[in-house]
Write a structure and sequence with these properties.
Length: 318
């Protein structure tokens, strides 16, 4: 969750900023990276929001993302160029609570249509396990940031958000409302199908527990009757303590855990350290915060399919 990442040292944030803020990405489309085009200009905060905007907007939308491919979205800082981009856009699509810099920038702009995905579904608190290993420093911000923003990893919640985004597009650009409605319906149907695949694929497994580097999969776990155990402390790239390793080793034996999952956008050092000590395998479970050449697929659906296969293998699906 964003709590831990906000507390990473200023040096790390500065480094991330230096690496990633040269220019805006146009997501997977070939649209221009500047606003004020003859299309419906949408600025999205990061990949899951950009994907929704592209799928629903179709040919009528020019979608750009504030977070570049490969950039860790939690640490994003907004450049002057990006603030100007927001001012020129017809709509901003973001997820309040995930990227504080985006929340602040959107609130300060005069953009007419501000779509907060967090307000289109119900957010819950899945941070208990993660906060329990952060100590007092992490606990200080627990109440303020308790709600888990990773709603896109639950196809049902993502579909709810899609429906809300579709209605917002229809209202903001009524000339193309019929197409937005049609595109939204098609996307929701596809997400419902994905949900069915996960339900069927994970209903009969040897274990229900999986270990992750980053506590991003709370909604997914809850939806399909699984239990997520996150291993990192304040810094997602930190090694787990000896006590935490022993605790997870015991849990792995008790619950038949076979695999420690790591991500594509952060170091795999933590997961591999734990796996070595606990004699477990490692694999990728992608939180889909961005698509890169390391991703197991070119878009949301392909990567979610890969996540399902990885979970089936790790949990011993029958």
């Amino acid at each position: 969750m964003n709590v831990r990442r906000r507390l990473i040292s200023a040096t790390a944030v500065t480094a991330a900023t230096a690496l990633g803020l040269g220019a805006l990405s146009a997501c997977s489309s070939d649209s221009a990276a500047t606003g004020n085009t003859d299309k419906f200009d949408v600025v999205a905060s990061f990949y899951p929001m950009a994907f929704l905007a592209e799928q629903i907007g179709g040919d009528h939308a020019n979608v750009t993302s504030l977070t570049e491919p490969g950039q860790e979205p939690h640490d994003l800082e907004i450049s002057t160029k990006q603030r100007a981009q927001l001012e020129e856009a017809d709509a901003a699509l973001y997820l309040k609570g995930l990227q504080p810099a985006v929340d602040e920038a959107v609130s300060q702009t005069g953009i007419k249509t501000k779509i907060d995905a967090a307000g289109l579904t119900t957010l819950e608190d899945h941070g208990g396990t993660e906060h329990a290993h952060e100590g007092e420093e992490g606990h200080a911000e627990e109440e303020e940031h308790a709600r888990d923003p990773h709603i896109w990893l639950d196809p049902v919640k993502y579909a709810e958000v899609a429906e809300g985004v579709g209605k917002a597009f229809e209202k903001a650009d009524p000339d193309h409302a019929a197409d937005y409605k049609k595109n939204t319906a098609a996307l929701v149907e596809k997400l419902n199908g994905l949900n069915g695949e996960f339900e069927n694929g994970l209903k009969d497994t040897k274990t229900k527990v999986f270990f992750t580097n980053h506590a991003a999969f709370g909604y997914l776990a809850e939806r399909y009757g699984l239990t997520q155990e996150a291993i990192s402390g304040l810094d997602p790239e930190s090694e787990p303590s000896a006590a935490r390793v022993r605790e997870l080793q015991q849990e792995a034996k008790a619950d038949g855990v076979t695999t420690v999952f790591y991500e594509t956008l952060v170091s795999d050092k933590t997961a591999k350290t734990l796996a070595k000590d606990a004699k477990l395998k490692t694999d990728v479970l992608d939180p889909l915060e961005g698509i890169t050449d390391k991703s197991r697929g070119d878009d949301y659906f392909q990567v979610m399919e890969a996540n399902l296969k990885a979970l089936q293998a790790a949990l011993g699906a029958k």
